[in-house]
Design brief:
Layout lengths: L7 E5 L4 H12 L3 E6 L3 H13 L3 E6 L5 H15 L4 E4 L15 H29 L2 E6 L12 H21 L4 E8 L6 H6 L2 H9 L9 H12 L10 E4 L7
Parallel strand pairs: 1-2, 1-4, 2-3, 4-5, 5-6, 6-7
Length: about 250
Amino acid sequence: MTGATGRVALVTGGSSGIGAAIARLLAARGMRVVVNYLRSDKAAAEVVAAIAAAGGQAMAVQADVRETAAVERMVERVSAAWGGVDVLVHNALIPYAVASFQDMTWEELGGKLDSEMHAAFTVTKAVLPAMTGQRWGRIVYLGTGLSRRPREGMIALGTAKAALEQFARYLAQELGPQGITVNVVAPGPVEETRMSQHVLDDALKQRQVAATPLGRLAHPADVAQAVAFYADEDNAFMTGTTAAVDGGVSMQ
């Protein structure tokens, strides 16, 4: 991909797992990358150092993406250093309960829905002025295959991410005339992430691998490749779409 050089990409939740893989790949493709993190300052610094060692540009910025003032401060800091954000990759994982509906409280389900949408709303609002001003932008949200393929105990995450997917479609329709694309990358289970360690025991992992045509779980780098495709300057005519990064599970 050729058209990314110099663009500023903000990756929320960029200090580990999928977010770190995305940050490293976008930097390798020539973008200046903002590694947002909540608490993992050491891990974020390591991602920035790895990018710098590979010849890229990156900075780490702490902000809770659920807090409007914190997000606005983050974007102001980026704007002062590098100008406006050209590419938003909203990857930050908002905590959620793993439980059946019958065992779940409204605070657990409604709280996840509220936090998920509030974070997406807040970070998108913060970066849009620069994108609309230049009539160019790329927005990529991280979803999940659980939005369409339910799994036991995952109703809070699946429902919240389904709402995020529809939010993305509405934005794609509204922002298209301004040169801004909005897409979703929806992974299946991903190795080497806190989420997979939290919800996938060995037996469930084995069943998931057996059900996957490509015969393994995704790696963070697999997800990063799909995000980088959507984020690139050359990908100018896809918007409102969802890419399933699940090894073929969703076609069955």
